[in-house]
Design a protein that fits this description.
This protein has 427 residues and is of the alpha/beta class. The chain contains 18 helices and twelve strands.
Length: 427
């Protein structure tokens, strides 16, 4: 009987490809049929990488610009004008997508506005490091529940050169959307350090500038809207993979950069008061906090961005450097503030954490000296609290930890209140 069973098993074949048991690793049985592991993998690959056939749904409950700004207020301190500008641009962008879907699947008879096409409004954020550019973009994606990815423009190169292709930005967004084509095509991409790919001089480049003007040229199509062939696993390491066709028309691109030196370009333009024999030059304070608010497209072109790229970033807004008051608020007010994160970490250990006002003020002063905005605050606290975070998980009698000014400035140990000390005070 055993021999008969073995003979029967060897005679089974995959109902799809026809391969017998001996030529495949596994053969799964169903109702009067079989399927091999190779056909299972092939079907899975087809399901993952095939185009979504269902029509896109409208983005329901789209928040108003005011609601978007109020949400951003919980995460980004200050930058009122930038938040308002971004809120309006994002609202119009997704309202435009909803209108496209409505016209496609619910056409209105005699729609007089059918010939009017609303153009996409990509956003350019200008501001020094640590002012909240990345946080703005990330918070928007969180509110709208759309896929989001960050790309660093400095690692991008023109196709065919060592580095990352521009299309790899879309690969990351596709992966962030759980390999859903529909979700990818309405996501948000934040391209950081966009100023670092500016042209090296104002004249057209004779030699190949593969990480500057060449990348700008590569970004043009995907920013405006094109159907890109995206390899799901990335471009160069897996040449055998099938491509996914991603339409970038409704992907919102937010580009950000510090644009060091742009203030001088703006200052030169504003300083030229009169042209001719009676020409005068007026002094312009290029260190002013609002100098970037006066940026016009011509300034960006003179800085080194090509005109076509500037034209595809129609919404431009600036973020002001953070003063002491703003940095102090950043430490405690946002929902995800640094101090609240540390308090949560210590709560998980059953320990209460407090920050003395002097400690917060000292951290702000150090951050102002470093001139890297809110980004400096994280590194200041990480260094100051390294030892206590190392020790607390191994200590049994800790009830409370108090971070003092000297903990920040001189890396002294914080005050530790034990459970026994606290119980004595209570009694």
């Amino acid at each position: 009987m055993t021999d008969d069973k073995n003979f029967q098993n060897l005679s089974h074949r995959c109902s799809f490809c026809g391969k017998p048991t001996g030529q495949v690793k596994r053969l799964f049985s169903g109702h009067e049929s079989y399927i091999c592991n190779e056909c299972v993998e092939l079907c899975n690959d087809l399901l993952q990488h095939s185009s979504d056939s269902e029509p896109q749904d409208q983005i329901r409950d789209l928040p108003s610009p005011k609601e978007i700004k109020e949400f951003l207020d919980d995460y980004v301190i200050g930058q009122e004008e930038a938040k308002k500008t971004v809120a309006v641009a994002v609202y119009n962008h997704y309202k435009r997508i909803n209108e496209q879907i409505r016209k496609r699947f619910l056409p209105a008879a005699g729609d007089s506005d059918s010939a009017i096409e609303l153009e996409k409004s990509n956003i350019l954020l200008i501001g020094s490091t640590g002012t909240g550019k990345t946080l703005l973009a990330r918070s928007l994606a969180k509110l709208l529940k759309v896929p989001f990815t960050i790309a660093d423009a400095t690692v991008l190169t023109e196709a065919g050169y060592v580095g990352e292709d521009v299309e790899n930005i879309l690969v990351r967004l596709y992966q962030a959307s759980d390999f859903s084509q529909q979700k990818t095509e309405r996501g948000i991409i934040y391209i950081d350090e966009i100023d670092k790919i500016s042209r090296k001089d104002a004249n057209a480049s004779i030699t190949r500038d593969v990480s500057g003007e060449g990348v700008q040229q590569g970004l043009l199509k995907i920013l405006e809207g094109t159907v890109a062939n995206v390899p799901p696993k990335g471009g160069r390491k897996h040449p055998e993979q099938s491509f996914v066709h991603i339409n970038t028309t409704n992907i919102l691109f937010i580009c950000g950069g510090a644009f060091d030196g742009l203030e001088k370009v703006v200052g030169r333009r504003l300083g030229k008061n009169i042209v001719g024999f009676d020409a005068e030059t007026k002094h312009v304070d290029t260190d002013s906090a609002d100098i970037f608010e006066k940026v016009i497209p011509a300034d960006l072109i003179e800085y080194g961005l090509i005109p076509e790229l500037v034209g595809r970033l129609p919404v431009t807004t600036s973020l002001k450097p953070l003063d002491e008051k703003a940095l102090r608020s950043i430490l405690t007010e946002p929902k995800n503030s640094i101090t609240k994160q540390y308090v949560k970490l210590f709560e998980m250990e059953g320990v209460k954490l407090k920050f003395e006002p002097g400690a917060l003020n000292a951290a702000v002063k150090i951050a102002i000296e470093r001139k890297t905005g809110a980004r400096a605050l994280r590194s200041i606290f990480e260094k100051a609290m390294l030892d206590i975070m190392y020790q607390v998980p191994s200590m049994d009698d800790v009830a409370e930890v108090i971070i003092t000014e000297k903990t920040i400035t001189e890396h002294e140990e914080p005050k530790i209140v034990t459970i026994s000390e606290k119980s004595k005070k209570a009694s």
